[in-house]
Amino acid sequence: AAVLRRVARGDALAQLGCELLAQEELGFGERALEQLAPRAGERVLDVGCGAGTTTQALEAAVGSKGRVVGLDVSRALLELACKRAPANSRIEWLQGDAGRDELPRDFAPC
Predict the structure, then answer these.
(1) Which of 31-35, 39-43, 74-78, 96-100 has the lowest mean pLDDT?
(2) Cα separation, 67 vs 40, whole angstroms
(3) SS3 sequence, 38-99?
(4) Which pLDDT does position 16 carry in this prediction?
(5) Could you tell me the pLDDT band of residue 101, with boundaries at 50, 70 and 90?
(6) Contacts of 106 (CB under 8 A, 6+ apart)
(7) Three-state DSSP class for 64?
(8) Which of 60, 30, 25, 24 is nearest to 44 (CA)?
(9) More confident residue, 61 or 34
């Protein structure tokens, strides 16, 4: 199985397309959050997290007792997500393919 790669805040410039994609995330993410209605203390795996707009909202919803992991295949989008997240964010950013790579143990299917 392929291994997910952790992504940390980097100095690499994300492409302009990543910024545009991040702007498009806003409407979709808001609708998803309304349907999901995350609660404090929950664990959330944001598959296809992109530039992390929705992922950050999820972190706020689950609070300090919850856990949020953002997963995306695009390293450039994940680097942008890391840069956009507050310095005290506890989001774990992973690069990988949810359909192919092994998921974090506490998110693996039963």
Answers:
(1) 31-35
(2) 10
(3) CCCCCEEEEECCCCCHHHHHHHHHHCCCCEEEEEECCHHHHHHHHHHCCCCCCCEEEECCCC
(4) 45
(5) confident
(6) 43, 67
(7) coil
(8) 60
(9) 61
